[in-house]
Design goal:
The protein is an alpha/beta fold. 46% of the residues lie in helices and 14% in strands. A six-stranded mixed β-sheet has the order 10-7-1-4-5-11. The protein has a three-stranded antiparallel β-sheet with strand order 3-2-6. The protein has a two-stranded antiparallel sheet with strand order 8-9. A hairpin with a 2-residue loop joins strand 8 and strand 9. The radius of gyration is 22 Å and the shape is globular. The protein starts with 8 loop residues before the first strand and ends in an 11-residue tail after the last helix.
């Protein structure tokens, strides 16, 4: 992959780090299922981040504020973020700076539910459906997105992800009944395939990834997201925002590629301007990807038609920053979201046609 071994310095912050997601009697221990984003800015060898004092002045951040954060630019939802003049000033500054944005976006909802499909597809009986693995996961997500808390309350009754072997048939039947409770209306062939798969699986199958686990724990940590970036950019220097839990986890292992240790460190954001810039960027990206996931394409189309000029300028800047990074190195941009969420983001930012197969009606 182009430039994958370039010796970047990658600065990171994260947003929506809930640290742990568990099932409760009411549904979940966290109300919001926003996307977790780990990302920031990448500098090439020899590149220097411009002094952010001038940027702080432009954004009218008080001198008494110890560091720059998104809340100093705007507070509110994604619509408010896009409607902010300060966000435009920040994104314009970032575009002109000798840096690239980088990020890993993870759908927490998707992460919490895909083990069901993974467990079925690894079964010898259903291995022939491997070609449709991502399609099936996408349709599962699309159906659960309509009522996630209802689905998680159902999972709680089966001690998910620790389903008793003698209850597997009951579990699979209950999931199928929940997903298709409004009738067997299929938006595409993959939805029909999912329905048939669950019907067949209830008769005779195992769920390898959903037994023998700790009950009620959907996401134990986001350590693997950090490790994924280290394993992707093995020649880079990685500088993470100080996060004691992540530091302890990473320090348990020596991360080596060949005979070379992957270089990483942690820094206090108050002392590292590049992490402060990363904080603002990640906050914006977290709002973007969470909105793309929660809204239908029909809702996004209606909203997009009424965007203000300010909002359109900020959308264009986000698209330009993404394109700049993608042209430098595809791996700088990593979106681990369902197919239709990815497609909504591509449509919203870049105007790429949204597939009819992913429309709910």
């Amino acid at each position: 992959m182009q430039n994958i071994h370039k010796r970047y310095t990658l600065y990171y912050d994260e947003t929506n780090n809930i640290r742990r997601l568990t099932l409760t009697d009411c549904g979940l221990n966290h109300d919001a299922l926003d996307c977790f984003v780990l990302g920031g800015i990448a500098l090439e060898p020899g590149a220097v981040l411009p002094d952010i004092a001038a940027l702080r002045g432009l954004l009218r951040i008080q001198v008494s504020a110890p560091e720059m954060k998104l809340k100093h630019l705007v507070q509110g939802d994604y619509a408010a973020c896009l409607d902010s003049r300060k966000v435009e000033q920040f994104l314009t500054w970032l575009l002109k700076a000798p840096v690239y944005i980088h990020y890993s976006n993870f759908s927490i909802l998707n992460w919490s539910i895909v083990d069901l499909i993974d467990s079925l597809i690894v079964s010898e009986r259903f291995r022939h459906l491997g070609y449709a693995h991502d399609l099936l996961k996408n349709e599962l997500h699309a159906l659960i997105r309509l009522d996630p808390l209802g689905y998680f309350r159902l999972l709680k009754t089966f001690n998910y992800p620790n389903v008793a072997i003698d209850r597997i048939e009951e579990f699979v039947n209950a999931v199928r009944a929940f997903l298709f409770r409004n009738g067997f209306l299929f938006r595409n062939t993959a939805t029909m395939m999912l329905c048939d798969l669950l019907k067949d699986a209830a008769c005779d199958t195992t769920l390898d990834f959903l037994v023998g686990n700790d009950s009620n724990i959907l996401v134990d940590s986001f350590d693997t997201v950090f490790l994924h970036r280290l394993a992707t950019f093995t020649s880079a220097v990685h500088v993470f925002d100080e996060e004691p839990q992540i530091r302890m986890s990473l320090e348990k292992e020596r991360i080596v590629v060949g005979d070379q240790t992957v270089a990483y460190s942690f820094a206090n954001s108050r002392d590292e301007p590049a992490i402060q810039v990363s904080d603002v960027l990640c906050g914006i990206l977290g709002k973007h990807f969470s909105y793309m996931e929660k809204c239908s394409i029909e809702q996004l189309e209606a909203w997009s038609a009424d965007l203000s000029d300010q909002q359109r300028r900020n959308v264009a800047l986000l698209a330009e920053l993404t394109d700049k990074a993608d042209e430098e190195c595809h791996a700088l941009i990593f979106n681990q979201a369902p197919n239709d969420s990815k497609a909504k983001s591509l449509w919203f930012l870049h105007g790429i046609e949204f597939p009819d197969d992913y429309r709910d009606s």
